[in-house]
């Protein structure tokens, strides 16, 4: 032991017994996350076989990404809620209410009452701002009741589940609001709501640069404090895998062309010649997917790089210790619920834009999908444990199950049964994993 | 021979009730610079409750707290830390799910110029402090949950001394430790004392405290039985105070003393 302290620090991977252990230890990857990626791969390949090759197509994967976006945005907030030993049952209802409010804002309040006129370029951003304000406000109200009045989160948000769903009805007395503002609609995806091949490449290359720079910065930081370094080959493997996955995703998004008719209309409108076999215009990455990824990055940053995130996890691990350490735990709780409300508003924008309508049933049952995605993604209801990346993966797993079963032509009652069983099974596996780890 | 300088801490006539039970009843206690005061008593004697009032975990019903002779307002743990009061709790108040560095700096994280957490700097500082305290400690990347009781306790102690405490409260600091680690904590207490820090040691076991303390204060049923310099009384006499509430000739009786 003594020579360890004196000589330059040694990375733990040099003590590993076999090749797999050495690989896992050297790359410092989260084995749990790796297991989830493996499970997702099995699900995808399985569905591809059983649906006769329909699952692993650019078209289906692109649709899958868009369908996941709304739940993915909300699950990043739900992780923080559950990590602090709370729960939010009201997210689907908040989504419904905020969607209605934004619908009314862009179809009547701003264009008619304020006289901006339909199609004004500011309408989408003003509507979104109002939606964010309403969502954050609802979150703040619930958070204050939970943190300062000490009513359990389960009860407050169960009440909220009923109240906000009812309130969504009151906004227009139950009428559906449609169509949405044309710019606002871009947040829902579709041919117009995707960034196209060129910008998809720009996004992909920026992401690759970020991965490489991140690895280099991490290395320099460890050097500065003389911490053990990962072996160089492990860094290269991580970089290649990360960039490879990013480029693969861009290739898939770009391989899905616009539907022929829309492409033909576009060609006609822009005076382009339609070549033999139709015009190939790539969708590229959909805007709601970019929004979800952006939210994921920001939330990961919040959770891991800021005091706020540190406090969230400490409160989940030992609320008394956090309080005694001088953390204002009540205010942190309020902030978590405000964040959750704001994320519901973003999800509401994606959902209403995608449907091109706001209905008072929008987001029904979403709270259960969001909670299930967080839990499948490794968030522990006992608190203190959970990652944003894991929860996002959980959302993809949930949506893959849904979409795969639709492709296989399973009846919808059977779909619910499968999703329910998978949820319980996943949590059981996770329990086993954790029991073996500590 | 009583120390006549202004006490570092002076708690006077402190009372607190929980649902009709007087957990602490008119208790008074003082602490000077560089002094170690052992606070003794059975489980439920009120010693932890009294000290939690000083550390801000509980709010007193009546009584005064003076720090350096000036009245102090302590309503929560943050206020207490503002006065340089650091506490190491009996039930190992660490967050199990985060690593040692995160626990050491909990509530007072080091940040980069951009305002983000500077984990590398915190880990580096944690390695330095833990190296002084427990040279065998090297599991910095793991959640505290994975550590032994003694290692967790060294994290808790490192946490308290990291921020230059002036007043240190240790509630059963060695209860979860083995003999070697207990000896280490003893050495550490002497070192901190020589740096002029005032220390309250709370224990129900006289052996933990008697050799380290300059003075002992004994509580029973929420009241102070009496106090004595450890040079003026024997361990058996202090035991008599703890068990029977009987005050020996070398001690000063308090409100809870049995009058014979």
From TrEMBL, chain A:
Domain of life: Bacteria
Recorded topology in the membrane: Multi-pass membrane protein
Primary location class: membrane
InterPro entries referenced in this protein's UniProt entry, alphabetically: ABC_transp_permease (IPR001851)
Protein's cellular compartments: Cell membrane
Keywords for this protein: Cell membrane, Membrane, Transmembrane, Transmembrane helix
Transmembrane regions: 33-55, 61-82, 89-110, 122-149, 161-178, 198-217, 237-258, 278-303, 336-357, 369-393, 405-429
Gene Ontology MF terms in the entry: transmembrane transporter activity
GO cellular component: plasma membrane
Claim: Ligase is one of the keywords in the record: no
Record-linked PANTHER family: ABC TRANSPORTER PERMEASE PROTEIN YPHD-RELATED-RELATED
Protein known as: Sugar ABC transporter permease
From TrEMBL, chain B:
Domain of life of the source: Bacteria
InterPro entries: AAA+_ATPase, ABC_carbohydrate_import_ATPase, ABC_transporter-like_ATP-bd, P-loop_NTPase
PROSITE patterns, alphabetized: ABC_TRANSPORTER_2
Domain ABC transporter as annotated: residue spans: 9-246
Keyword Repeat part of the UniProt annotation: yes
Keyword Ribonucleoprotein assigned: no
SUPFAM superfamilies: P-loop containing nucleoside triphosphate hydrolases
GO molecular function: ATP binding; ATP hydrolysis activity
Protein keywords: ATP-binding, Nucleotide-binding, Repeat, Sugar transport, Transport
Protein name, UniProt field: Sugar ABC transporter ATP-binding protein
Species name: Devosia oryzisoli
Organism taxonomic ancestry: Bacteria, Pseudomonadati, Pseudomonadota, Alphaproteobacteria, Hyphomicrobiales
